[in-house]
Amino acid sequence: FVELSAKTVHGLYKIFEAIFLQADLLDLKAPKDKRGAGVIIESKLDPARGPVGSVIVKSGTFKEGNYFVAGKSWGKIRAMFDDKGNKVKEAGPSSAVEIIGFSEVVPAGEMIYGVDNEEIAKKIVEKRKSAIATISEEEVIALDKIFKMVKEGTKKELRIVLKGETYGVINALEEPLQKLSNQEVNIKILHKGVGNITENDVMLAIASEGIVIGFNIKVDQKAKELAKAKKVEIRIYNIIYELLEDIKKAVEGMVTPREIWKLLGRAEVKQVFTISNNIKVGGCYVVDGKIVRNSRCVVKRNGTEIYKGKISSLKRFKDDMKEVEKGFECGIGIEGFNDIEIGDIIECYENLKFLYHLHRL
């Protein structure tokens, strides 16, 4: 045992001496002239460099240009950096390096192995993925049975697909989330991973009647569309206590539905026309964004909100339009509103409630 304080540096040199002494007494050695093998201690999705992994080399040597496999990922080492950020060409036993070249982000704790070529790397990863897919299918069936139990009132479970910017963040969230479970409601982490929320995450949530939670990441466009179509809950956070507070409220059945609106565009009424049945339509100029037919809208007069409704008709000349972009003129009819005046501002909104609110359990 060595007394040690990182804050005061007390015992720092003693621990070095103790480690070197143990290494000499145990005659610890690792082969250097073979393909590299190591363990991933941290990983993340870098916006500029793609998936990155921090690796401790256990044996052999990794060299720039080598192919490798790690979990469900394979790749070719494009670059390596030591703990000081210096670029290195090779890394031998006990080296700590950051490797760029992964095909996807790999969980911390996975082993990384060097292989001879790209073909071998792809074959290994395909076999691993097919094995994982089989396990996942079995898990979905089991979760489906559990959901039936929930509907029957014998068991309640809040199922979560958890995504974050790094595995360190995910690990920091997992334990406090599971501690929010109580006698009536159990919290189950269906899947955890690094990177943006994808279609696969949403599909897992659909199959298991779960929700998707992301921390400091984004949602892929296809995932957004699928989630909106299937009414899957997605919540994005960048403050941990807000995430935990919302889940706590959900578990306690206290979260009320809330609607979040995204402003799509604004149009100014330049002229008012009266059509059949004495209905008034605004001749408008789109000053910002776009106006979309059948979307929600707010009418403002002199900066004051006077009506909320729905855009029932949208025309350019005599043609019906789905949307009209900034800089163009159009005719706008508002459902249930016949008091439109020149100078009114019509704001068009998209409703994001299915992407961002948690249902009550």
What is the spatial order of strands in the main beta sheet?
1-2-8-5-4-9
Classify the secondary structure makeup into a structural class.
alpha+beta
Task: Give the radius of gyration.
Answer: 28 Å
Low-confidence stretches: 134-147, 354-361
Kindly report how far apart the N and C termini lie.
Answer: 51 Å
Beta strands, count: 21
What keywords describe this structure?
21 strands, alpha+beta, disordered C terminus, 361 residues, six-stranded antiparallel beta barrel, six-stranded antiparallel β-barrel
Short account of what is shown:
This protein has 361 residues and is of the alpha+beta class. Helices cover 27% and strands 40% of the residues. It starts with 11 loop residues before the first helix and ends in a 5-residue tail after the last helix.
Explain what the structure shows.
The structure is a single chain. This protein has 361 residues and is α+β, with helices and mostly antiparallel strands. It contains seven helices and 21 strands. It has helices at 12-26, 118-151, 167-178, 199-208, 221-230, 240-251, 353-356, and strands at residues 37-46, 50-59, 62-63, 67-70, 73-81, 87-88, 90-91, 96-102, 111-115, 156-164, 185-194, 211-215, 234-237, 261-274, 280-292, 296-301, 304-316, 319-320, 323-325, 329-334, 345-351. Strands 1-2-8-5-4-9 form a six-stranded antiparallel beta barrel. The chain has a six-stranded antiparallel barrel with strand order 14-15-20-17-16-21. It has a four-stranded parallel beta sheet with strand order 11-10-12-13, with helices on both faces. Strand 16 and strand 17 (304-316) form a beta hairpin. Helix 4 packs parallel to helix 5 (221-230).
